Amino acid sequence: MEKFISHIRPYVPGCPDAWVAREVLGAAIEFCRDTLICGEDPGLDRMTKKLPKELYQNWKDEITAGALSRLFRMSGKNWYNLRLAALYQSFFLHGKGQAAIAAHKKAHPGMTVRQRPWV
Predict the structure, then answer these.
(1) Is the pTM above the cut of 0.90?
(2) Domain-embedded: residue 23
(3) Would residue 49 count as lying in a domain?
(4) Distance between CA 15 and CA 77 in Å, rounded?
């Protein structure tokens, strides 16, 4: 979790680390739930203190984007910025799509889709 926090901290000056950690965890839970990249039962919940190493190694930018999107939507805070929130949300959604494809390929190796010619 600390690696994510130190990666995000410069983007949200003055934001408490506990808030950053909460939003990283929320983004990671959503990411794993929606993509199945962590398996059918990722074992992540709001009480988790440590995220799987693979999330940081393989999906650091995507989880970071999800957390930043959430943080930038906090109205009344110095770092509030709806434009950046939307931008990072789009990065997060794209990353979830890529992870879902990767999870599907991992679950179904050798399965391919062939394009049919247009007639």
Answers:
(1) no
(2) yes
(3) yes
(4) 8
Contact 64, 4 (CB under 8 A): yes
| 80-119 pLDDT per residue, tens | 999 999 999 999 999 999 999 999 888 888 777 677 888 7
Q: Establish if 64 belongs to a structural domain.
A: yes
> Tens digits of per-residue pLDDT, 1-53?
899 999 999 999 999 999 999 999 999 999 999 999 998 777 888 888 889 89
Q: Which amino acid is at 85?
A: A
Please give the residue range of the domain that contains residue 33.
Answer: 2-107
Concatenate the DSSP letters of all residues of 16-50 into one string: -HHHHHHHHHHHHHHHHHHH-TT-S-----TT--S
Domain count within the chain: 1
Tokens matching residue 100:
């879902």
Q: Which two tokens mark 4?
A: 């994510």
Is residue 77 left, alpha or beta, with left meaning phi > 0 and alpha meaning psi from -120 to 50?
beta
Domain annotation covers residue 45? yes
